[in-house]
Fold:
Amino acid sequence: MERIHELENKVQELYSLLEAFKKLNSDLAIQDVFENILLQMVQVVGAEAGTLWVLDQDHEEIVASAAYGPTASAILNIRLSKEEGIVGKVMSTGEAHLIEDVTKDPNWAKRVDQSSGFITRSMITVPLVAKGHSIGALQLLNKQGHSLFTKQDVNLALALANQSALALHNSQMYDDLYKMFMSVIKTLASVLDARDPYTAGHSERVAKYSVWIAQRLGLSSEECDELNKAALLHDIGKIGIPDEVLRKPTRLTNEEYEAMKQHTVIGATILSNMEPKSSMIYAIQTARSHHERLNGTGYPDRLAGNDIPLFARIVGVADTFDAMTTVRPYSKGHTFQEGAAELIRCKGTLFDPDIVDAFTTILEECHYEVERYKLPGRQKGN
Ligand SMILES: [Fe+2]
Structure:
């Protein structure tokens, strides 16, 4: 309990920090920040092509994180070792570099040109320095109009780089904070699941299924991220359910069942205590309403139809499916095919038909091998 309390505090702390950062940066999607910085630089200095290199601290490599020009797609995501080439040198010394004739420079990392097919004549490389550390470098290739880059161009690039480095630093911090926040949410969910050996991994699986469904229904990636968070926390209220009820191997008495149902209300209350409230709206709704059923027979509010929030309807389907298909004290667990058949049987009465259709289509498409199902083109938060 103590550990859960600590984690709750941590979540709250991180949320406040995230919100503070959101206000600081109007444009926080880190890839957008990379591309904006590069584009501005290319346009202002007048270059044919450019690359934004960013230090990947985890791998100690420098990554081409944004590229502009005719061979941008070939350059993007190329990785250099920390000391490699002109970029490595500029980042380690923190000094800008101007080369009029690139091919005569011994520091030139030839493999970049060879793999992209781009012929570099003239090049400026400036470091991106934030809080005294090189966090990347900007490289501009070939002055437009066939002339060569001058010292003046370097000074202009340096002035812009100083501004950009700060924006980049803030975005990276926001990104790190977001990752940390999500990992604390996941830890919180897994600590909760670990209280009952039969529900290990339950919250993660429910979140995974929910996001699959949402994507299939055409929800935006921001909505999917919110849903992921809400689904991970849907059973958080079980913190308030005594062990003897939560872990009881035999059937619950009516009284115990009534107590168990309270996890929805307790969950909503816990989440509504987190600040800022606005960022927990979906998680609160989902915790409270994921046991509501389409025909009004669910709990705690006996909501029906579209009065049940969409995320709660999605999590309700994912939650039921996972409960059916995992081993519990009172059930040996159904197969995925049986679970899907049961959802279809209750489609329109207990569950939203569109949500059941989306999920059962996914299950069919992956031949019920859910471990092998991959979301098309998504990564964040999962
Ligand atoms: Fe639940």
Notes: The pocket of fe (ii) ion is lined by residues 234-235, 263, 290-291, 319 (CB under 6 Å). The mean pLDDT is 85. The longest strand covers residues 133-143.
